[in-house]
Specification:
The protein is mostly helical. It has one domain. 78% of the residues lie in helices and 0% in strands. It has 2 helices and no strands. The protein has helices at residues 2-68, 80-83. The longest helix has 67 residues, at 2-68. The radius of gyration is 41 Å and the shape is rod-shaped.
Amino acid sequence: MQGQLKTMGEQVKEMRSSGQQTKELIEQAGRQVEQLTIAADAASKSADAAIRNAEAAKQAVAIVISKERARVSIIANFPPSLSHSRTDGEI
């Protein structure tokens, strides 16, 4: 009987130790979740900044294309005798 009590006492001690280890693991997991949440928030902000940068780059390219696009201007000097012979509706 004494041996059984000793064995049971050791089992209880091991169960308490196991419970403490489980508690510590849960606390560690909680800290990891907090750090992962911070990392996810930072990644989200980084993605938002990348989107804004891409939009700014797109606008910059549009400005460059607009400035570099060829412009053609035609000026026609018709003699006065031709310029009154037809109206816009007749052309």
